[in-house]
Q: What sequence folds into this?
């Protein structure tokens, strides 16, 4: 059923939409993809998803946002299902708010880059899990199947 003019209530969706590009830029710079979740009718639900190999700490990103925008953090971060943590930020006198959830960082780190087999000199692009700051060594060569692939510094 269509609402009448008297039934329509203004909301903050246009203000939230205007904030999104600059917020997304901050998140991208800090290793996250930023997704909108919900209708934006009452509040602005955002989900930050770790995307790059290295991501900034959520608290540091919240500090960047509250420094660059007229937003204030309300309360402490709240744990949510599946390891998410949620920060609530308010605009103005608290009538509109951002609920900002961060998905947890993955336990694995990944290498993605050019590799060369030291046995047969075959070259390929590999994606492989790594531990710490080390690069993977001994990757299986798709040509000779030896465990002799090592990352190279070459570019295209």
A:
């Amino acid at each position: 059923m269509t609402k009448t003019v008297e039934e329509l209530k203004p909301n903050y969706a246009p203000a939230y939409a205007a904030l999104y590009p600059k917020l997304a830029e901050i998140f991208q710079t800090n290793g996250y993809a930023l997704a909108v979740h919900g209708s934006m009718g009452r509040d602005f639900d955002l989900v930050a998803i770790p995307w790059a190999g290295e991501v900034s700490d959520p608290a540091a990103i919240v500090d960047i946002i509250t420094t660059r925008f007229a937003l204030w953090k309300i309360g402490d971060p709240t744990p949510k299902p599946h390891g998410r943590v949620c920060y609530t930020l308010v605009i103005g006198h608290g009538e509109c708010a951002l609920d900002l959830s961060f998905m947890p960082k993955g336990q694995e780190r990944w290498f993605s880059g050019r590799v060369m087999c030291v046995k047969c000199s075959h070259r390929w692009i590999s994606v492989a899990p790594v531990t710490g700051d080390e690069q993977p060594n001994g990757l299986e060569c798709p040509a000779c199947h030896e465990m002799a692939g090592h990352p190279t510094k070459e570019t295209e």
About this structure: The chain has two helices and nine strands. The helical segments are 13-29, 58-68. The mean pLDDT is 88. The chain has two domains: 13-102, 109-151.
